[in-house]
């Protein structure tokens, strides 16, 4: 099967990428699909809102690069990824406004989503204090896994990191961790998302169950050049 990598895709190409993302995050279940999905809308409006929200976020980050891998013969999107290139400390300067999942209605469910996202984003601050690359999102359609799609998406960023002589980061699922390890990423620590709200409503309790809290994610780091030796390679934020 012939595959083609497309870099810096357009807004016209993005809806097919989001469709691939949603299918990918359902097998196996990924809680971020629920967390990012707008609520209270019909299916068509939900899809439209999700596309708009993600594209707007992308356009507000000039260092972001969306990639997609398509099946050359059919044009089907087999997988996609969002890489961020940070040429300076991404956390330098004053803090911006607190995270707010405005696509969720007001209430304790939105508060829970905000707390989980804040836990997730705060985990990056001690580590990403230098120029670096971040693999923010990476997914492959279930029917196209183990065919080289993930390798193509990851290699684009690791080559950029090597060209820039900088580190790279990714937060991995259980399924993604072996892929990233093959490309020089080293597991550093777990990220445990276990936020709770006080006196949650029955709807919020149901959301906690749907999200399968606590969510455990594997923080991974790729040193400059992708070379890591146990007992020799220093992890910058742990020294």
Question: What's the short version?
Answer:
With 239 residues, this protein is an alpha+beta fold. Helix content is 34%, strand content 23%.
Please tally the helical runs, counting DSSP H or I stretches of 4 or more residues: 7
**Relative helix content:** 25-40%
Overall mean confidence score, pLDDT? 96
| Helix and strand run | EHHHEEHEHEHEHE
Give the N-to-C terminal Cα separation: 46 Å
Percent strand: 15-25%
Can you tell me the residue ranges where pLDDT is under 50 for at least 5 consecutive residues? Answer: none
Number of strands: 7
Q: What best-fitting shape do the alpha-carbon axes yield?
A: globular
How would a textbook summarize the main sheet? 7 strands, mixed
> What is the C-alpha radius of gyration, as a whole number of Å?
18 Å
Structural class: alpha+beta
Strand order of the main beta sheet, please? Answer: 1-2-3-4-5-7-6
Report on this structure:
- The protein has 239 residues and is an alpha+beta fold.
- It has 7 helices and 7 strands, in the order E-H-H-H-E-E-H-E-H-E-H-E-H-E.
- It has helices spanning 14-24, 31-36, 43-59, 108-122, 149-164, 177-182, 202-211, and strands spanning 3-7, 64-71, 77-86, 132-140, 167-172, 186-193, 215-222.
- A 7-stranded mixed sheet has the order 1-2-3-4-5-7-6, sandwiched between helices.
- Helix 1 packs across helix 3.
- The longest helix is centred in the first third of the chain and has 17 residues, at 43-59.
- It is globular.
- The mean pLDDT is 96.
Topology:
Blueprint: E1 3-7, H1 14-24, H2 31-36, H3 43-59, E2 64-71, E3 77-86, H4 108-122, E4 132-140, H5 149-164, E5 167-172, H6 177-182, E6 186-193, H7 202-211, E7 215-222
Parallel strand pairs: 4-5
Antiparallel strand pairs: 1-2, 2-3, 3-4, 5-7, 6-7
Helix pairs in contact: 1-3
